[in-house]
Amino acid sequence: MSARSTPRDRMADVGSLLHSREAPLMIVLDSRSQPAGPVRVRQPLIVPSVLPADFARIGKEVRELCEAGVDRIQWDVMDGVFVPNLTFGPDVIAAARPHSSVGFEAHLMVVNPDELLPRYADAGCDLIIVHAEACTHLHRTLHRIRELGARSGVAVNPHTGPEVVQHVLEETDLILAMTVNPGFGGQAYIAAVEPKIARLRRMIEEAGLDIELEVDGGITEHTIHGAAAAGADVFISGSWMYAYPEGKAAAVARLRAAAAESIR
Ligand SMILES: O=C(CO)[C@@H](O)[C@H](O)COP(=O)(O)O
């Protein structure tokens, strides 16, 4: 737990301790290396987008996701300008917060994230993700998120190169490689992003930093393999998870198993 954590963060940390990035790392022997040495195997995190949820019963939807075994919950915040859609204000998220036993992340698809950061931190978002394309002073914005007591994340659209995050790695806890153009759920996964995911994974490893690498958009039990093999370790799922015939718990288990097969 970092020194910048707020009391709300600390409560959320206790609730989600089993899913922390530090705790679940396994040590295995890598038979490919000579001599054999310990290798860190990342555990995939499965995170639903609430975009397909029934907004008239959002508290119940959040409780169902927690019971399904998700690692945290993503709120897609859209302003109708950065993306052509409008979604959640901070008051909606704050109202849902007491219904959750896992952390909240806010994916801010907005043109002016800086002025909104305190509102989403106060609403109970433990992780706040801004778009590189929306931030004139990305380093400052990420630093500000941490000052507010949240973890910081930076998202990049499918067309944006990995180099935009090279000089802010020290200020970020997560990189989100969008695998659709943001704005709507239910779009097709863009496999052409995978080489960028691999490049981002190398950048993280070369920097020696504990940064999560998230993918978002079109994630299914099939597409998750390519993203995991490229180096992603956090997987957002929206429409596929909600439409899974055997229910959300089975969908989470299916995605977790599929990611674990391919994660590197
Ligand atoms: O950020 C976004 C869309 O802008 C995503 O979170 C999607 O909402 C994920 O939904 P599916 O592609 O899994 O339906």
What descriptive keywords fit this protein?
about 35% helix; alpha/beta; eight-stranded parallel beta sheet; TIM Barrel; about 20% strand; two-stranded antiparallel sheet; about 260 residues
The chain-level structural class is alpha/beta
Biggest sheet, in brief?
Answer: 8 strands, parallel
- Helix fraction? 25-40%
CATH homologous superfamily placement:
Aldolase class I
Bound molecules: 5-O-phosphono-D-xylulose
Low-confidence stretches: 1-38
Count of individual beta strands: 10
Total helices: the number is 9
What is the top-level CATH class? Answer: Alpha Beta
End-to-end gap? 26 Å
Pathway: Carbohydrate degradation
Active site: 76, 216
EC number: 5.1.3.1
Enzyme class: isomerase
Structural commentary:
Its EC number is 5.1.3.1. This is Ribulose-phosphate 3-epimerase. The active site is at 76 (proton acceptor), 216 (proton donor). This protein is an alpha/beta fold. It has a single domain, classed as TIM Barrel (Alpha-Beta Barrel), CATH 3.20.20.70. It has helices at 7-15, 58-67, 90-96, 113-122, 138-147, 194-207, 224-230, 239-243, 248-262; strands at 26-29, 38-41, 45-48, 72-78, 103-109, 127-131, 151-156, 174-178, 212-216, 234-237. The strands form two sheets. It has an eight-stranded parallel beta sheet. Helix 5 (138-147) links the parallel strand 6 (127-131) and strand 7 (151-156). The protein is globular and about 45 Å long. The two termini are 26 Å apart. Residues 49, 51, 76, 107, 180, 182-187, 216-219, 236-240 line the site of 5-O-phosphono-D-xylulose (5SP). The site of 5-O-phosphono-D-xylulose has 20 residues, from strand 10 and helix 8.
